[in-house]
Amino acid sequence: MINLKNRSLVSITDYSKEEILRVLGIAEDFEKDQRQKLLTNHVIASLFFEPSTRTRLSFESAVQYMGGSIVGFASADTSSVRKGESLKDTILTVSNYSDLIVMRNPLDGSARFASEVSPVPIINAGDGANQHPTQCLLDLYSIRKTQGTLENIHIALVGDLKYGRTVHSLVQALSLFNATFHLVSPESLKLPSAVKKWIKDAGLEYHQYTELNDIIQLVDIIYMTRIQGERFPDPLEYEKVKNSYILENSMLESSKNTMRILHPLPRVNEISEDVDDNPKAYYYQQAKNGVYVRQALIAAILGLKS
Amino acid sequence: MKNKRTELKVTAIRSGTVIDHIPSEFTFRVFKILGLEQSDNPVYFGTNLGSKKLGKKGIIKINGKFFKPEEVSKIALVAPKATLIEIKDYEVVKKQQVDLPEKIDKIVKCFNPRCVTNNQNISTSFSVITDQYGRAKLSCHFCEKTMSLENIDFL
User: How many CB pairs (< 8 A) connect A and B?
Assistant: First the structure.
């Protein structure tokens, strides 16, 4: 029995395979008809304690397409947090004014804590370097849409596999769907062993590479990531690896016709702009899919779709 | 009789607790975890003692003190093979292996400086998990980071 109603979503592992597929199914329904006015009597709180473009705007656009109202803030500077208010007090206060809280907070684990003190459900829109489950769901939606299935996908994960939280969540989720992982990263940014253990425990395979060219013709999905300077304790280390992988249009000739390139965005220079017009580039559509997926989640958690 | 004499020799306190089979290097850590520096009870300890089980071991004897379960779990974090022996009137009345509990609440600090528990007034909570090499690790309930037992700091 799948019931997502009133359940917070903090980490992608909070959902079973069936629950993930249910959300993706509802998202498809929103892709067919985006302006379903299901939220006309609802208020959604959008609490962004740190800046975000895609995630915040796509959540707010999801709410507005469904006719809902939004309260909240887009940075901690414009809230009582600046006066020293605790996270607990902010959550308990805002839960009085809304049916559901979407929260991004720079502290790891803040979303789990919020979900445990809040009387209304929380959707984690990113808690520091920890989890970003709605990004994971929109990645899964994009993979399924472009490949027709989530099962048995060969995926190349490229770039910062050590600090990139979207990569970790995607590995955890795709481990439910019998994926094969091709891990392309500099030596210093390899996937952490705890995440590799997920793959092993699921009885699946991973292969590690340092050259991107080696695997382009093998895979169904290339998932590029930005090497995030802000996550490096040592700026010199960042300088060494920041230009490690740059995907150029000429490199795609040998790839499968059905192969698609994903990127959680923002990109810096890891996908050269000449790739943008290649039909294999899917990252802008991927960002658009984020709205359908967030509509689906909000509707499912408020019990308006099942 | 022979066994009884051996126990008596190890536990030459009248009534209280003996913690045996502490890895030598953690003797002082166990001492500190249990707050024995502040204790008014007579405490005896030895370290770098010969041990068949550990090579070298530490032992702590506390006269007139018995431990609560949460204090025992603290010991298991640094001395998972330790034996806890309760003595009454020079007799061993209870002897048990300390066990790592499934959960460690409120006693250990998360090693991740960005964890919400290090930045807000929130009690810590960890699950005890086993990594791919069979080593026990603590997984933070909030930030989901795992830390090895060598890195732990007590609150």
Answer: 57
Residues B24 and B92 placed together within one structural domain of the fold: yes
Same domain assignment for residues B113 and B88: no
A43-48 and A260-262 strand pairing: unpaired
Q: How confident is the model at residue B8 (pLDDT cuts 50, 70, 90)?
A: very low
Whether A108 and chain B come into contact, CB under 8 Å, resolves to yes
d(CA A133, CA A129): 12
Please, what is the Cα angle at A161 between A160 and A166, to 5 degrees? 95
Residues B63 and B19 occupy one common structural domain = yes
Q: Is the model's pLDDT at A204 over the cut of 90?
A: yes
- B126 - beta bridge partners? B104, B140
Tokens of A154: 């060969």
Q: Which comes out higher in pLDDT, residue A77 or A98? A: A98
Q: Minimal CA–CA distance to A46: which of A61, A59, A37?
A: A59
Q: Is B114 on the interface with A (CB under 8 A)?
A: yes
Do B12 and B78 belong to one domain?
yes
Query: Does A129 have pLDDT greater than 80?
Result: yes
Tens digit of each residue's pLDDT (9 = 90 or more) over A15-71: 999 999 999 999 999 999 999 999 999 999 999 999 888 999 999 999 999 999 999
pTM of the predicted protein model: 0.86
What's the domain range around B32?
Answer: 2-97
Enumerate domains of chain A plus CATH numbers. Answer: 12-131+288-301 (3.40.50.1370), 134-286 (3.40.50.1370)
What backbone phi and psi angles, to 5 degrees, belong to B61? -125, 125
Q: Could you tell me if B83 lies within 8 Å of chain A, comparing CB atoms?
A: no
